Amino acid sequence: MRQTLIQLASAFFGAFGFSLLFGIRRRHLALASLGGMLTWGIYLAVQSVWNSLFLAALIASVSAVGYASMLARARKCPSTLFVVPAIIPLVPGSSLYYAMERAVDGQFSEAAVFGHQTLICALAIAAGISFVTVWRELHTPSTPAAQPPESAGPGADSNTSQEEEHEQGT
Q1: How does DSSP classify residue 51?
Q2: Half-sphere exposure of 37 (CA within 13 A, CB side)
Q3: How far apart are the first and last CA of the chain?
Q4: pLDDT tens for residues 24-52?
Q5: Containing H/E element for 113?
Q6: Per-domain residue ranges for the chain?
Q7: In terms of C-beta distances under 8 Å and separation of at least 24 residues, what long-range contacts does 67-73 make, across chains too?
Q8: Rounded Cα gap, residues 59 and 24, in angstroms
Q9: How many Å is the Cα radius of gyration of the chain?
């Protein structure tokens, strides 16, 4: 339990640090950082139940994008302000580092294992973001396009354009 709390606090402060780095305004910092902590908490919960790296990262990234979308609507600002810090704890930095380290040391079988973990996690994050984005596009009502006015004004013939009137000499 203590280790989980330390991980959640680390996710919060990691997201906070990236929020500062990306210049997120002070009024959004706490909620953006909370998104990182919530995302990591969901990742840990799913990982403990199903023991699947892909499923944990997928569900956590879907949750992060959903969280960011809700906050963006409530705060009337772009969802990017909240989705980037929320996704940061999921980024497979350590497995990528270990893959590169093992490859440089010539331990290619271990490098492949870490590279595989990195790829699975990155694909799950991308798939989660894509799922929510596509779902939102399909289920958000589109706004109708602006219709042109019925007539250009009194005495104007809607069947002739200005170029045709000029050519006709009228």
Answers
A1: -
A2: 16
A3: 85
A4: 999 999 999 999 999 999 999 999 999 99
A5: helix 108-139
A6: 2-140
A7: 67/35, 67/38, 67/39, 68/35, 69/132, 69/136, 71/31, 71/35
A8: 25
A9: 25
**For residues 81 and 31, is the Cβ–Cβ distance under 8 A?**
no
Per-residue buried b or exposed e for 131-143, using 16+ beta carbons within 10 Å of the residue's own CB? ebeeeeeeeeeee
Residue 61, token pair as written in the block: 């990234």
Both tokens of 161, joined, read 């354009």
Tokens 């992060």 correspond to 64
Question: What's this model's pTM, rounded to 2 decimal places?
Answer: 0.80
How far apart CA 87 and CA 60 sit, in angstroms, is 8
- Pull the structure tokens for residue 155: 């005495």
Question: What is the tens place of the pLDDT at every residue in 2-16?
Answer: 999 999 999 999 999
* Tokens, residue 102: 């093992």
Alpha helices in 22-107 (DSSP H): 26-50, 53-75, 80-87, 93-104
Tokens of 138: 């399909």
